[in-house]
Amino acid sequence: MMNQPSPKHHRHSIRLNGYDYRTPGAYFVTLCTDRRLHLFGEVEKENMVLNQAGAAVWEAWRALEKHNSLIELAACVVMPNHIHGIIIIHEHTAVSSDTPVNHRSEVPVNIIENIFPVRSKGPAKGALGAIIGQFKSQATRRIWKLPGYSRIPVWQRNYYEHIIRNENEWAQITDYIHTNPARWTEDQLYSNK
Fold first, then answer.
1. Which of 21, 83, 127, 188 would you call most buried, defined as having the most Cβ atoms within 10 angstroms of its Cβ?
2. What is the pLDDT of residues 96-130, one digit of tens each?
3. Considering the domain boundaries, does residue 99 fall inside one?
4. What is the rounded distance in angstroms from the CA atom of residue 63 to the CA atom of residue 60?
5. In this structure, how many other beta carbons lie within 10 angstroms of the beta carbon of residue 168?
6. What range defines the domain where residue 42 resides?
7. Nearest to 38 by CA among 24, 46, 26, 48
């Protein structure tokens, strides 16, 4: 009997098809640890107690605003095996026409792309995916500097996002984030490992 080739694993995007994730607005995000391992601390008496890795994640999260003037951070909680947070993307006022412009030379981007091809993979600069990638990278670097954490896998490949559409959703999600440690054993991401 011949060996059958294994079927290729095709990842399906969980992003909203056709939506521009650079669009100004509020986004609720959840990022999980690799294999949902407890890397960031433990919940004790309904409060999250961060370990060194959890503190590094918190610091990387707070640093996002310092490195990106187009975003603002709202509610956030680091849990044993995930982080929940709200990222607000503000208006990108530097680009106002349909043709993006390279602001160093004021040459339309499509002309530059013909001369210097742009990487076709990955999220656009300023998009939610790029912000999350920056955060994961910075948090991982901080964690890898800690004793005992060198080069361990930290994050799952993807992340969950939800576009916050109104004040009612904002209030519900903010409450969910703030009360997450008190509801830890009921959380769908709960595990006792």
1. 83
2. 444 444 444 444 444 444 444 444 566 678 899 99
3. no
4. 5
5. 9
6. 25-94+125-186
7. 48
Number of domains into which the chain is organized? 1
Q: Provide the CATH number for the domain around residue 138.
A: 3.30.70.1290
Look up tokens 């080069």; give the residue: 151
Residue-level pLDDT at 85: 98
Q: Record the tokens describing residue 22, joined without a space.
A: 């650079």
Residue 88: burial class (beta carbons within 10 Å; 0-12, 13-18, 19+): middle
In angstroms, the CA 51 to CA 143 distance is 11
Average pLDDT in the chain: 83
136 assigned to some structural domain: yes
| Any domain includes 9 | no
Q: State residue 122's pLDDT score.
A: 63
| pTM, full prediction | 0.77
Residue 13: inside a domain: no
pLDDT over 60 (residue 95)? no
